[in-house]
Protein: DUF354 domain-containing protein
Amino acid sequence: MRFVFFTNTPAHVHLYKHAVDRLQRAGHEVFVLGRDYGCTVALLERYELPYRLYGSCGTTKGSVFRNLPRHYANLVPAVRSFDPDVIFGVGAYAAHAGLASGTPAVLILDSEPTSIDHAISRPFAAALLTPHAFRKDLGKKHYQFHGFCEAAYLHPDVYRPNPGIRDELGLEADEEFVLLRFNAFGSHHDVGQSGFTPDQRRRLIETFAEHATVFVSDEGGTRDSDSLPAREFDVHPALLHDALSAARLVVTDTQTVCTEAALLGTPVIRSNSFVGDDDMGNFRELERQGLVVNTDEFEEVLATGTGVLRDEAVGVEWRRRRNEYVGGLVNLTDVIVAVAEAGGAAAVSGLERWRAGTEGTNSDRPTPVTEEST
Structure:
């Protein structure tokens, strides 16, 4: 069989990398269409995926819309010439490529606020797969899996931490560190949203530097690295998850890194304008499990983070809760491969029709993760 995977962002590369590898090893033909955005190309190269770029995009909202015509002009003929059996993606590019080529498109989504993208992609998708905590009904083609998109690459069945990450970061064996991840807020779904201000970023660095080494990963690339007591996170982006796993604390105004840290059992605080009563289901679920602190109060970020750094028992308890919870999640890579080989989502193990209010329900795999498996 023949499959196309769209990787528009670095997170999409991680989402699909193991499925691409497994399908290739099973003898299928796979074609990855990538967008030059952030570190997407560096990851495609690192994992040796069979890719072609259909275009580029900056970290500003305007860049996305300016480049759309060129993107479609490139991706539609590329998909048609490959003639796939199934297309996988995370939004409109994949759905519209499916429409143009007469190919079923399977979309994997986890963000309820992206209403425009849902509106222009849902009618043309053969199936929409979302985590069990997803709170929005996407119609009769909507399926759910018990887990998170990030479980495609951070599930204990597929991820093992790199024991050499401290050497990569230039740290001593017992040197504790904090990772601060700042969002560029340049995507179309970030319109009207915001995170830490420049002054708040400075205060985060100065406060946490009193307790641990501080690394900063700034998606927008705007931080003045010379004036504050912090180091730039300048190792290969493929090592980010290893750093998240080894960190004492992660503080972020992004979405994906928050979920990644939570699934790795690292104390994580998330603060941005999405937080509130209408927050995304993923983060409500992770907070319910005691794996994330969501707050829009900056002073709470400082106080909570300082408390984590002062009390080693907090991290131990956080990891215990993670081990109990993550063992019950579906390995999403298994689901993606099964959907690909079945040619669709119907009757695939690990998927069921979406229904409201399934957060916190028990899964079919209630096996705790042991420390040896992390």
User: Anything to note?
Assistant: The chain has two domains: 2-156+330-373, 165-326.
